[in-house]
Amino acid sequence: MRRIIFIICLVLIRAAGGHAEGLFVLEPTRILLGGDSGVLEALFVRPNEPGRYPLVALAHGSPRSAADRPNMTPLAMLPQALEFARRGWAVVIVMRRGYGGSDGGWAESYGSCDNANYTAAGAAGAADLKTALEFVSHRPDVDPSRMMAVGVSAGGFATVALTADPPPGLVATISFAGGRGSLEADQVCRPDRLIDAFHTFGKTSRIPMLWVYAENDHFFGPALAQQFKAAFVGGGGNVDFIAAPAFGNDGHGLFSPPGIPQWTPYVESFLRQQKLTMRATPLPLPQPTIAAPKALGTNGQKAFATFLTEAPHKAFALSPDGYFGWQSGQRTIDAARASALKFCQKNAGNCRVMFIDDAAVGQ
Question: Which residues, at least 6 apart from 97, have a Cβ–Cβ distance to it below 8 Å?
């Protein structure tokens, strides 16, 4: 049996402000790729209670710039993972080959824009998700008969591909804004090839799926998303499709911490339909107790409230006259600090970092 290699044996997220301590367990994990191919970086999350939990593999998107891939981290999707954990699921946030600290080289290239091979790219991403699910399914705290994949953007596309050749125990999948090939706003390389890939995956896909696309998605707009659905269902795929209302400036970011109030009801409804509701009432989340700095104006107060919901590592910088900048989901604290200062210093020269993760600096 494969053995998970732990970097940190056990880390507890401690709740504050009257919540019970130790509600969730986080275990940074390495998933073996097999042979001499190395490992996939991952983060395992579950409620801190004994038992065997159904498993979600959580799949990230792909940045438009290749230079950003090595800086990605599983922590960037921790808030999303906790939404499933508090509903009674174990979650493995897995970095696919070539992203973050994962080995193996980037495997998801679709080739040139003029001759895009999206089917191969999707299959490569699906292979990593399949490896992660199979590997983690051997844990004594995981129920291998009830597994699900949830992905966003390129990760959502990989979940669609996964249903075409599913591992044993995969009972459902969810794709938020799934697709590939968006080079800039409202432009996709060879959309016809992308539609064909959805049709190809639909030919052998029979796993129940939920797809969610926002009406103001500027990666894969509503008209194109409907063509994805028609092609996939036409091939034989099984989809519950939600055309979600607009979210922020670009609905492609719906599956994010600020989008939690909008997307979690879609997930809960789908889980009920599939008889996969694990808890009638979700576990409470740890709540930061730090107050917003008084120097912040109305917009700054809103930004700080958003900052508190975002993923580590994160930092919030502020100048005495109220200018601010923040960054989240960074691989290191130093990277978060530098990015927050950079954004703040666009408008002020005397910025300093006031908060790192969920604590005031110096406390």
Answer: 33, 40, 103, 104, 105, 106, 107, 108, 124, 128
